[in-house]
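Weekly structure sync, notes
Attendees: PL (lead), two postdocs, one rotation student
Agenda item 3: pending single-chain targets
PL asked that the sequence for the first pending target be pasted directly into the notes so everyone works from the same version. It is reproduced below exactly as submitted, 141 residues in total.
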Amino acid sequence: MRKDPRHRAREAALQILYQWEVGGVDVAQAATVLFERQWADPEPAPAALRSFASALAADTVGLLARSDALIAETSEKWRPERMAIVDRLILRLAIAEMIRDESTPRPVIIDEALELAKTFSTAESARFINGMLDAIRKKLG
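Predicted structure, written out during the meeting:
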């Protein structure tokens, strides 16, 4: 089954953020490594996908303080740095997209985050992310 290009771009953005977080590399460098050395698809990533993924990852890093503050105040018992890396990155990615892109309906952004959690994390994580993002969506207005 062929994935929607925007969904594939969100997957790529998550992979970029993972390299940034774990590898400690600049987000632009992580994007270059992903698209030029680690791209798993048989065809190179289309320019629109690369652009969307790279911009979303960069915006996620740029909005880190705001996103982490929302996560911390919403989760009550869990500071972002105590969460599983992938779950934390999915939350940050979705929050950044909610903040930066008012043209994409927030329920779509949340659904996309849940798909990422199901692919890269666990069913339990998907439930946690759903609850967190729904509460954060309400806080953002």
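Discussion points:
- The mean pLDDT is 92.
- The helical segments are 5-23, 27-38, 47-62, 64-75, 85-100, 106-120, 123-140.
Action: rotation student to compare against the earlier draft before next sync.
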